[in-house]
User: Fold this.
Amino acid sequence: MYAQMVKTDTTSVKTREEMSAEERAFQDRVDADIKIEAKDWMPENYRKTLIRQISQHAHSEIVGQLPEANWLTRAPTLERKAILLAKIQDEAGHGLYLYCAAETLGVSRDELTEQLLTGKAKYSSIFNYPTLTWADVGTIGWLVDGAAIMNQVPLQRCSFGPYSRAMIRVCKEESFHQRQGYDALMKMCLKGTAAQKAMCQDAFNRWWWPSLMMFGPPDKESVHSAQSMAWKIKLNSNDELRQKFVDQTVPQAEYLGLEIPDPNLSWNEERGHYDFGEIDWSELFSVVRGDGPCNRERLAARRKAWDDGAWFREGLMAHAEKKSARKDTQKNAA
Ligand SMILES: [Fe+2]
Ligand SMILES: [Fe+2]
Assistant:
């Protein structure tokens, strides 16, 4: 899943005349779709923006495990439990993969963890909402992982090699996540009882708007993305991806027989897209500020995991030190 509130660089895009020779050569490589690798020269702001973007993404994968983990012990069948467990393990893998990609830019895992635990770094706000019923788990897979795919597929073509390559594998797994969510909902909406259908509609009502917010603020308020676009670390605008998501999701909801909780939603023949109602951005900003329903709970869970793991980290360090001391003795003896 993907952090939507990536703040992009605030400096305006330099003209070729304003660029140094190094910057020009860098931009030429980006324009020619040649990947930038970790050891290549890069503008300091490119590095900083990427560290922020990749680490927010990694934090989102890690925190994103928490809402679904809530249902692991109560999954309705053994099969659903095994699927959910596999999905959650995938998300942990995505987080670790992305932390590694961020580390290639010269930041340590400890620094990134500290930024998350102190609240300095953000993660996707969607994970600050609670999972009240089993239908929430299906809805998250369908909508939240679906929105993540929408965001991440273009990033497979982003200019930074380690990030773009990570996205290829991540996207394959995300598509399994979306399928399993939709499959769980199909079962309940198409073959389930009236109570199960009502439960799915209720979950859909609660997740629809936060899912649309996952694409970030409207383009007219997100004026700082020009540099990230020029550097190809952002490839589509927020509104463009949001529209694509709505267009893709509405027919899927119709197939399930679910009603979109938006009285203003209608097909616009002229545009060839769905029109939809105004998003309540004040809600998003309050969740980003830390006042969502589960912000405190999520951070508390991550802090507890960090503290509980202290003995294990110490054990690993002691083992590594012992091993290197043994190597030194062997070297001296030889
Ligand atoms: Fe993921
Ligand atoms: Fe996922």
